[in-house]
Design goal:
Mean pLDDT: 90
Number of domains: 3
Oligomer: single chain
Strand content: 5-15%
Strand order of the largest sheet: 7-8-6-9-10-5-11
Structural class: alpha/beta
Number of helices: 27
Number of strands: 15
Distance between the termini: 46 Å
Largest sheet: 7 strands, parallel
Radius of gyration: 27 Å
Length: 663
């Protein structure tokens, strides 16, 4: 969808998008548009910043563009090259007679200071600030639903449609497995209102052959007037202006805590007409960056410590490239990443209040919608009361939407499992297309699953993968059966990052990619020992568990940085064990109570998942035995493509190193 937004900008500026000029560089000699992902020499743009001097650079939605370049997964494999190109471009333009124009509804000093620091030139930026605020007649009426779930909002949305309303609905999720995502609500509303025209706009529909939403970004105002209900994902949260008037009757929003708080506010503003807004915002966000810290110094210091720990682990494996590793790459980019990260983390802590405070600061009137509670003063509602009827209606709605979600999601899992098997060449060709058929998208997913797990793709495998099975299995594998391959795996990851960055690494990417510190932490806390004795009975009073808890609690901050697990200061041994076991898909169950004097203790036992993971582990072991570190398909494919090296290694005769983490 970023491509579509840039294409729309190119139309407004009268220049061409990169795909129109890539085969004839002469056509782009006076300029072209491209996404930040393509700002490097290996992209379709074959971009060379040295060729651009004294020109004009325009960055719309600069806050999100820079954050995308600094933190998104789609930029990770070329992040260092992109940041190098960006710095050279800004230096060439601002160091000469060129100009840089940036724009954003939430422009901050962070972006301005970052671009100035990249330029290395002492400049005074010319800032045009739009400080206009609507008067009482021009401000939005924002109806804030304070319930714990968006059930009431969706019920009232349905009633609004039944009364002839034409809503524009902003959602923060898309996938069929999401209860409040675009796919599920589209299916539910089509069932309730089969006579109405409903348009779903998300990253998949925008790039789906023959879908009504395909290519609509450049012509939104004309397209939307043909629909009674529009469901939009964050694909159009910024960069578009819907100036259609007299068509929509309201704007609705479900923000589940995924987007930044400023993104939610900008989503609400896509419809320019002053219509009533109805919003449900999650009380707390569940996304965070780094260790989730809201302190700039803490985030940077913890990241540096984790980097040094990972480097020490690599040194133990005799990784000879460590000495040439540039961990100080672009300090200004790391600082910008950290400033934006702590801002994002801070908004996630009180997500709902952050969104509402921003809306009030913009001059809008926020009114709370009273929630419906199931009990009051400890008493049940009387059977025929309005509150009881409303609660019953909301529960019925929840059940209906859940049924639609489950049915559609199961159908999607079945379709992926039964889709055509792609060859390597088919996968490479079709994955590069911006527009794909649903059948092609499913075949791409099936190919990825086969590469990941090396077992037949079934609907159950699709479901488990969506639930995070792969991450659990990789940790479990390197913690147990595949521990002898961990050092080589992390060495290959580091080698790939060094090659991609030509000797430099971006610290946040490096820390996310290697697993040594995570596995080492779990070993220090004795998790592998617990896995070896599934019959053992566990109690908070066990001496060895208390010693483990003391180590964990003494290193709470480090554990949060390394594993993402936050521990309360007085967390019990059982709570700590459960948090770590959850990382690999294991659990704990209380099997009985035991009395000791006047005290009564719970006795627990590990619950081993019966999910077929051992078959996957055997496939991975066989792959790693043939060639060390190849059980991770994306890593092996990327390195092979870059080096052409397919040499086999006899793992039984190789001198692998067991990494050691000292606490």
């Amino acid at each position: 969808y970023r491509v579509r937004l840039v294409e729309a900008l190119c139309q407004r500026f009268g220049i061409k998008y990169i795909t129109e000029v890539r085969d004839d560089q002469k056509q782009g000699v006076l300029g072209y548009g491209l996404c930040l992902d393509s700002l490097h020499g290996n992209s379709q743009a074959r971009f060379n910043a040295a060729n651009w001097s004294d020109g004009v650079v325009i960055i719309d939605e600069v806050e999100q563009v820079l954050w995308h370049g600094l933190n998104s997964s789609t930029c990770q494999s070329n992040r260092v090259a992109i940041l190098k190109s960006l710095k050279t471009l800004i230096q060439n333009v601002l160091g000469g007679s060129g100009q840089v124009y940036i724009a954003d509804a939430d422009l901050s000093d962070i972006s301005i200071d970052y671009l100035l620091s990249l330029s290395g030139v002492d400049l005074e930026p010319f800032i045009i600030e739009n400080d206009w605020k609507p008067n009482i007649d021009g401000s939005w009426q924002v109806h804030n639903y304070t319930d714990s779930t968006p059930k009431k909002l969706v019920r009232e949305l349905e009633a609004h449609i039944a009364q002839g309303g034409k809503p524009f609905v902003c959602l923060s999720a898309q996938k069929p497995k999401s209860q409040w995502g675009t796919c599920t609500l589209e299916a539910y509303l089509k069932k309730q209102f089969p006579h109405l025209r409903i348009l779903r706009i998300d990253s998949e529909s925008l790039g789906e052959t023959n879908h009504p939403a395909m290519g609509c970004i450049n012509n939104l105002n004309n397209v939307l007037r043909d629909y009674d209900i529009v469901l939009a994902s964050p694909a159009i949260e910024t960069g578009v202006s819907i100036d259609l008037r007299g068509h929509f009757t309201s704007v609705w929003c479900i923000a589940q805590g995924v987007q930044g708080e400023n993104s939610v506010r900008q989503t609400l503003g896509r419809i320019r007409e002053n219509l009533p807004r109805f919003i449900w915002v999650a009380p707390y966000g569940f996304n965070h960056v780094g260790n989730g810290s809201t302190s700039l110094s803490s985030l940077l210091a913890s990241g540096q410590r984790l980097t040094q720990m990972n480097i020490r682990l690599l040194q133990q494996s005799d990784f000879d490239a460590v000495d040439d590793l540039d961990t100080g790459f672009q300090a200004e980019s790391l600082m910008c990443w950290a400033k934006m990260a702590v801002r994002f983390n801070a908004a996630m802590v009180n997500y709902r209040e952050s969104v509402l405070a921003g809306l009030r600061a913009e001059g809008h009137l926020v009114m709370d919608v009273s929630p419906v509670s199931s009990t009051k003063a400890g008493k049940k509602k009387s059977k025929g009361s309005p509150q009881a009827e409303e609660l019953g209606a909301q529960n019925a709605l929840m059940a209906a939407i859940t049924a639609v979600r489950d049915q559609n999601y199961q159908a999607e899992c079945n379709a992926i499992a039964s889709s055509q098997d792609f060859s390597d060449s088919q996968y490479q060709t079709i994955s590069k297309r911006l527009v794909k058929k649903p059948s092609e998208r499913r075949s791409l997913r099936k190919y990825d699953l086969k590469q990941r797990y090396a077992i037949p793709v079934t609907p159950e495998l699709v479901l488990k993968d969506d639930q995070g099975w792969y991450k659990q299995l990789r940790l479990h594998y390197f913690l147990t059966l595949g521990q002898q391959h961990l050092a080589e795996r992390d060495a290959k990851v580091a080698r790939l990052l060094i090659e991609q960055g030509q000797g430099s690494i971006f610290i946040p990417d490096f820390n996310r990619a290697v697993l040594g510190a995570m596995i080492g932490t779990m070993k220090v806390l004795g998790i592998p020992i617990l896995l070896e004795n599934l019959e053992r009975e566990l109690k908070n009073t066990d001496q060895d568990l208390q010693e483990m808890a003391a180590i964990a609690l003494a290193n709470r901050c480090a554990i949060k940085t390394i594993t993402g697990i936050g521990l309360a200061k007085k967390a019990t041994p059982i709570v700590i064990i459960r948090r770590f076991l959850d990382k690999i898909g294991y659990g704990l169950q209380c099997i009985r109570y035991q009395s000791q004097g006047k005290k009564r203790f719970r006795v627990y036992q590990l619950v081993s998942p019966e999910d077929g993971r051992m078959e996957v582990f055997q496939r991975w072991l066989a792959s790693d035995a043939l060639r060390l570190g190849t059980s991770e398909s994306w890593l092996d494919n990327d390195l092979s493509a870059r080096s052409g090296n397919t040499q086999s290694v006899d793992s039984e005769n190789s001198n692998y190193v067991q990494l050691c983490l000292n606490v």
